[in-house]
Amino acid sequence: MTSTTRNTRIWATLATTLLCSLCVAQGYPAKTVTLVVPNPPGGFVDASARLLSEPLSRVMGQSVVVDNKGGGSGNVAYSLVARANPDGYTLLTSYSAYHVGNPSLSPKLPWAQKDFVPVALVTVATNVIAVHPSVPANNLNEFISYLKINPGKLSYASQGNGSLSHIGTEMFKMQTHTSMVHIPYRGSGPAVQDVLSGQVQVFITTPPSVMGHVQSGKLKGLAIAGKSRHPGLPSVPTTAEAGLKGFELEAWVGIFAPAGTPPDVVTKLSSQIKQALEQTETKTRANNAGIELRYLPPEALDDLVKRETTFWAKTIKAAGITAD
Questions:
Q1: pLDDT score of 302
Q2: With 0-12 CB in 10 A as exposed, 13-18 as middle and 19+ as buried, what is 147?
Q3: How many whole angstroms separate alpha carbon 144 and alpha carbon 137?
Q4: Which CATH class is domain 7-124+251-319?
Q5: Does the structure show a pLDDT above 80 at 148?
Q6: 114 backbone φψ class: left, alpha, beta (φ>0; ψ -120 to 50)
Q7: CATH superfamily, domain at 128-224
Q8: pTM
Q9: Domain segments of the chain: what residues?
Q10: pLDDT averaged over every residue in the chain
Q11: Strand, coil or helix: what is 182?
């Protein structure tokens, strides 16, 4: 075989592969798309998936269903999607704490970041420091002072060992030189119930989980751990406004596909998600739920994952945090 013939065959193979990829993308989606959520119903991640599913279904012209696969600090859902066919029909609704935190928490994870390809960032949420009304503090300074006088007297909830609320509250304790007892739960739903009853007194979490309870007075919102106040909680100051500069905590949710998913399918899917997020109804529902829509394309989401993986690895090591 001459070199010319060999090169011709190579180019023909590449051209055929490209055409096949384009054909797959043009026909996508041809059936129901599933968004696998690594948490039980309720809370920021589940709310983000349900916020996206309806408008994305309209854009795609196919059903988009939410499948909650909670358990194992997200590992059940992540393992399921990592093993799924890379055809764009089984997608991971990824939670930042799991995606960038679990690799440092569990050296023997049943999945790896390389098992997924980024599709799009869809939502972000700052965190609110919420306490039960029985806590004798009406602002953040009073709360910190109470913790210092009563080390270990109060307990705080998290969605589980290694969750963002766990890591974030440990960061808060380190920065304020205070002490609280950690009570891990399996998701936001059961955590909120015990905080409402007063069995646990503190919960640093995303607004969707507690915003309605703060608005009704069932919980006290002491501060927003972000750069600006939350539109659903306009009377709650930021941590900087409340006197605690440098403490900010933001969670995000992104859509990922199994590694090996055709690039043209990923590109088309990302574009469809962008269209879904830009719809007026989606924006209204997000505002009412206390969720900020923030689209990023695959490359930018990949950069975000790399930056935060490095940051959380340092934080987790400094706090001595371990997973279940």
A1: 98
A2: buried
A3: 9
A4: alpha beta
A5: yes
A6: alpha
A7: Periplasmic binding protein-like II (3.40.190.10)
A8: 0.78
A9: 7-124+251-319, 128-224
A10: 91
A11: strand
